[in-house]
Amino acid sequence: MNTTMLEKKTVWWSEPMVWLLITLPLTAVIAGTLTVWIAVKNADTLVKEEHVKDGMGIAKVADRDIKAAQLGVVATLQAEPGRLVLKLSGHFAKPQSGLTLTLVHPTDERQDMVLLFSPAGPDSYATAYASLPAGKRLLELAPGDRSWRLAGQWQAPFTGTLQLAAASQFSSTQHSPNQP
After folding, report:
1. Could you read off the pLDDT of 95-105 as tens digits, one per residue?
2. At residue 160, what are phi and psi to the nearest 5 degrees?
3. How far lies 116's CA from each of 97, 137, 140, in Å?
4. How far apart are CA 113 and CA 154, in angstroms?
5. Does residue 177 have a cis bond before it (omega within 30 degrees)?
6. pLDDT bucket at 26, cuts 50 / 70 / 90
7. Which residues are CB-contacts of 30 (< 8 A; sequence separation ≥ 6)?
8. Alpha-carbon span 105 to 111, nearest angstrom
9. How far is CA 66 from CA 18, 33, 51, 172, in A?
10. Residue 21 above 70 pLDDT?
11. Range name among 29-38, 71-80, 128-137, 142-151 with the lowest pLDDT average
12. What residues form the membrane-spanning segments (predicted)?
């Protein structure tokens, strides 16, 4: 007796191993493409562009802090309804014509804000101010020529007063007792 084996011919798409070999690389390609798309759409903005372009950017900021300490710069910010008032003291050769206060959100660049202070009396400056969403803000106060700076932090919504003072090497902040 002769037994013959019947060979079954199958088409390639009915084999599970073929689909396994196709699915794994295809999944990796899709995941890689999705990762690139997420990275481009949500670029990290924590590093300011000036520091990326110039490796000495941090040294320049430290020089501005030291200049503020040499001038004995002290600024007191007072939150009033609809505006901020700033009292400035220091050993300046001439009165400051205008000041810029940059409010930086620690993680979301879209929430950053720049306030321009105009003179409102002797050693006093004021600007209109709209409230911000709650959260921590990093502050940088500088004159128009950016020759010095004071840096600090403030918790939004802003209430009470905040004193920014230059220390010997780095800026420091002192909150009023009623500041959260």
Report:
1. 778 888 888 88
2. 75, -145
3. 11, 17, 12
4. 13
5. no
6. very high
7. none
8. 6
9. 68, 47, 19, 12
10. yes
11. 128-137
12. 17-40
- Measure the CA–CA gap between 85 and 72, rounded to whole angstroms: 20
User: In the chain, what is the straight-line distance between the N-terminal and C-terminal CA atoms, in Å?
Assistant: 97
Are the C-beta atoms of residues 73 and 166 closer than 8 Å to each other?
yes
Q: Which residue stretches of 42-161 are H helix?
A: 49-53, 57-71
pTM greater than 0.85: no
Q: What is the mean pLDDT of the chain?
A: 79
Domain boundaries, the chain: 12-41, 54-175
Identity of the residue numbered 8: K
Report how far residue 166's alpha carbon sits from residue 151's, in angstroms, rounded to the nearest whole number: 8
Closest by CA to 101, choosing from 68, 59, 137, is 137
How many residues make up the chain in this entry?
Answer: 180
Q: What topology does CATH give the domain 54-175?
A: Immunoglobulin-like (2.60.40)
